[in-house]
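ok so I'm stuck.
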Amino acid sequence: MSDINKKIGLGTFVGMTMALCATVRSIPTLAAVGWTLISFSLFAIIFFAGPISIVSGELSTMYPQAGGPQLWVKKALGEKWGFVVAWLLWVQMFPGMVMVASTIGPLLGNTFGNISLGSNHWFNLFCILFFYWVVTILNIKYDMAKVGGSIGVWLGVYIPVAVMFILGFASLAKMGINTNGYLGTFSWAKVVPSLKNLDTLKYLAGISFIFVGIEMSSVYIPKLKDATKNYTKGVFIALIGLVLLNVLNALTVANVVPAGKMELANITQPILLYCQVLGLPTIIANIFSFMVFIGVMLQLSAWVTGPSATIIQVAKDGLLPEKFGYTKTNKYGVSKNVVLTQSIIISCFALLYGFITDVNAVFLILTNATTVIYSIVYILIAIALIKLRHTQPDIERPYRIGKSGNGLAYVVAAMLLLAIFIVILASLISSTALNGVLVAAVTIIFLIPPFLIYAKTKKHNK
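replied:
not stuck anymore, here's the structure
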């Protein structure tokens, strides 16, 4: 059997699926809720990530052509809604990339041993603008897609996760439970979210955001051995693995960081505290910060051109005005106009760091806005599944939710919709008025344009 047609085993599939969502950025967010992170993580798996993966599994085998969520929704709900999905998958990166880039300031501050610099909102603003525009220009001038993809994952994810795990459990073994940390003494009451403490609910979106993108695991189904049996099993093994990595690291972080002192965008904060507990030189934290900084830069570079491919295809399909110039690409397949558009808008989002001095608050606003926008895509995917069960009942479904009937498919779709409702509601009721208004405003501002553009473009093309 040739390598092209060679099937992948369950273990390989689990590893590839975990790589889609592996990150260290969300560990401080998980740690900030203390013992409640256990129930929040279970909620995210059972109601959010699991249903997304299963629904995507069926839809991707129905329509294995390129296009993913945009194609699924287009087939079920029509061209307009397919365009809306393509648009939202593009614009969600605007607040999302600022959130990712916001880690650069703290990383550089820690690299040079200047911790306070990393928490300065003006320095964070400068770092986001400077370094994002650097990777933007590099992607326009050079074929950056070939540079450092796997290196970025190792430096930005795998090695940091391993270092945090080893140092974290060594610190836990030495100091025991820190009563002044986010964990404190254990009780089952602390595991269950309390309506008396709505403050922790604001982190639910960030914790659910860990699993955003998990639907891409469905692209591996055609290559997976015994996919009907192994896909669901593999997805949940991968999700459990991701939760264990995140939860175990988050528990040790929550134990070592003093209550009320968590820095959500500063992944090096716990490393410094581990070094203090273990009596290790702080140069370990400096090296850790620089390594993660390089990883983040390489990951940012990949994101500059990645999501833009969808919007370029949409433009080529005639769903965007020609005057935008989004169909013109260079020899590397990069549309200068698309990349510059997204970089300008991302720069505008970065200005939040100039207007709001609380770095943690800005990080949460960006996380929640990105999650809400992405959740709209998931709502449309769930509706597409239900619609296609009625309009295309006889189309081949190599991977099907339930052996017969539609009951199980409806339950899975309902679980996903319920989870999205809870995540959005929790984010809004637990936020300050300003934060809630900003998240709602960002969502509305991004949701209106695709309808206006589509209506104008279709009218023009008649």
